[in-house]
UniProtKB/TrEMBL annotation:
This is Cobalamin biosynthesis protein. Gene3D superfamilies: CobE/GbiG C-terminal domain. GO terms for biological process: cobalamin biosynthetic process. Residues 2-116 form the CobE/GbiG C-terminal domain.
Amino acid sequence: MIIAGFGFRSEVSEEALMEALELAGGLRAQKIATAGDKAVATAFVALAERVGLPVVAVPQAALQAQAVETQSRASLKERGVGSVAEAAALYAAGEGGRLMAPRVVSSDRSATCALAEGPGRGESL
């Protein structure tokens, strides 16, 4: 299963999220994932509906437990993890999941997306 994980700023647009998904090659994803509190953000919910994919809301502790490749100072300060996108994708990919590539960033820098592959976790919103 391929998971597209997202990190994004509160002012993100659906278009920026879609751009990040496309840049990451995520149109083949079977689920999308992000931090639990961000899974209900208007733009993210609109993206999920647009691409027709279930959402995995990742608990904060689970984000911090993931080994990510990218180290964003802003993400480290705000979330305690170097990349929310990578961590969300890895968590949702499940046991033995692996990153397919480091995160990509939308042109307006408000959204990031990373892909991970694995057996997947069952829970979705």
